[in-house]
Design brief:
- With 119 residues, the chain is mainly β.
- 0% of the residues lie in helices and 53% in strands.
- The protein is built from no helices and 11 strands.
- The strands form 2 sheets. Strands 2, 4, 5, 6, 9, 10 and 11 form a 7-stranded mixed β-sheet that branches.
- A hairpin with a 5-residue loop joins β5 and β6.
């Protein structure tokens, strides 16, 4: 069983930066994929980025490519999402998720952290 706890959300002005953290308890195997998703008010949950634990391969949604960076710290069992050049449309609840293997959906989810970008 893996538990995920997000932190680092808050209120920031457009053009600013935030770094989200996702601390994982339990064993993260090398096969795991860690992802970030977000859900804006009145909208469905959307994919933001993922990272493969084994080889640190990353993938981003087009809407955040070039502005967001996902990374992980193996020793701390933590995944980060560095968000730069934030826009009001990035306002959402951001969720961390873990998949036991790539391509089979996400098995574990955090409770989310609110990010609000003011114009």
């Amino acid at each position: 069983q893996v538990q995920l706890v997000e932190s680092g959300g808050g209120l920031v002005q457009a053009g600013g930066s935030l770094r989200l953290s996702c601390a994982a308890s339990g064993r993260i195997l090398s096969s795991y994929v860690m992802g970030w998703f977000r859900q804006a008010p009145g909208k469905g949950r959307e994919f933001v980025a993922h990272i493969r634990w084994r080889d640190v391969t990353t993938y981003y949604a087009d809407s955040v490519k070039g502005r967001f960076t996902i990374s992980r710290d193996n020793a701390k069992n933590t995944v980060y999402l560095q968000m730069n050049s934030l826009k009001p449309e990035d306002t959402a609840v951001y969720y961390c998720a873990a998949a036991r293997s790539f391509g089979n959906g996400y098995d574990y989810w955090g409770r989310g952290t609110q990010v609000t970008v003011s114009s």
